[in-house]
Amino acid sequence: MKQAVFDSEGSRIRWTEAPGTEPARVYLHGLGSMSAVYHAHIAARAELAGRRSLFVDLPGHGLSDRPGTFGYTLEGHADAVAVALDQAGVRGAELIAHSMGGAVAIVLAHRRPDLASRLILTEANLDAFPPLTAASSGIAAYEEDDFVDEQHARVLQTVGPLWAATMRLADPRALHRSAVGLRRGSEPVMRTILEKLPVERVYLQGELSGELEGRESLEAAGVRVVTVLGAGHNVMFDNPDAFAAAVAGTD
Predict the structure, then answer these.
(1) CA 25 → CA 49, 118, 180, distances in Å?
(2) SS3 112
(3) Per-residue DSSP letters for 196-249?
(4) What is the pTM of this model?
């Protein structure tokens, strides 16, 4: 495990790393998740092995610190990841990012273009104010103190055992602020940034999640959108073969 200080209070963002050749692959998780849990089984596959791989836990999540004064906005998360990559000596990485982590990766590539050479996004959040059925909207609908004091435990019971296993490790206040930041989106909004990024961009959409809104405009901007058969939101679990092929660029 490695770490880097990302704020004035000495809070640390942490990651685990597998050595290998460059460019590095940097894996970023979604809201209430952990990077290695969602991606280590993919990075270890034969078609992906041998590349340097970093599994970064966003602030407030997993192994990373959870400062109470941190805003947990998309920009804040992206800047913390940038600190980690600077500490690790990473440049021109492939960012493999899921859900909220995808939104963070887009903002990171916009703010620090030297850190990203390719984006592989799995059902990344592209727009502000997602529908109320989205998990982030449900969490953000509560007042922060109400969520921390009462609703956090209820949410853990409703999200299912897989997600709850990592969500219970996230700080409740960090979880709520991250959901609020995700719902607010970035400026410019993530979709606009993604369409203009001058790097290879792949967007994975699970077949069971339905059609991706605005697919045509993304493809017109050079984003390769791949519908992954038999998969829902967690493509890396539902269809690991297709997920690994997309990361390897052999799909």
Answers:
(1) 11, 9, 28
(2) coil
(3) H-SSEEEEEEEGGG-PPTTHHHHHHTT-EEEEETT--S-HHHH-HHHHHHHHHT
(4) 0.97
Cβ 50 vs Cβ 103: under 8 Å: no
Dist CA 76 CA 31 (whole Å):
14
Q: For the segment 137-152, what is each residue's pLDDT rounded down to a tens digit? A: 999 999 999 999 999 9
Diameter of the chain measured on Cα atoms: 47
Kindly list the distances between the CA atom of residue 200 and the CA atoms of 93, 103, 117, 196, in Å, as whole numbers in the listed order: 12, 16, 7, 11
Q: Which residue has the tokens 């041998």?
A: 50
What are 210's two structure tokens?
Answer: 């339905």
- Judged by DSSP in three states, 156 sits in helix
Give the Cβ contact number of residue 190 at 10 Å. Answer: 25
pLDDT tier, 132 (very low <50, low <70, confident <90, very high otherwise): confident
CB 4 within 8 A of CB 57: no
* Helix (H), strand (E) at residue 7: none
Tokens encoding 60 = 């407030």
Q: How far apart (Å, rounded) are the C-alpha atoms in residues 75 and 246?
A: 27
Residue 124 has pLDDT above 80, yes or no: yes
For residue 180, what pLDDT is reported? 97
Main-chain phi, psi angles of 22, to 5 degrees = -95, 160
DSSP helix/strand/coil, 27: strand
Beta bridge partners of 226: 204
Distance CA 46, CA 60 (A): 32
Q: What is the pLDDT of residues 171-210, one digit of tens each?
A: 999 999 999 999 999 999 999 999 999 999 999 999 999 9
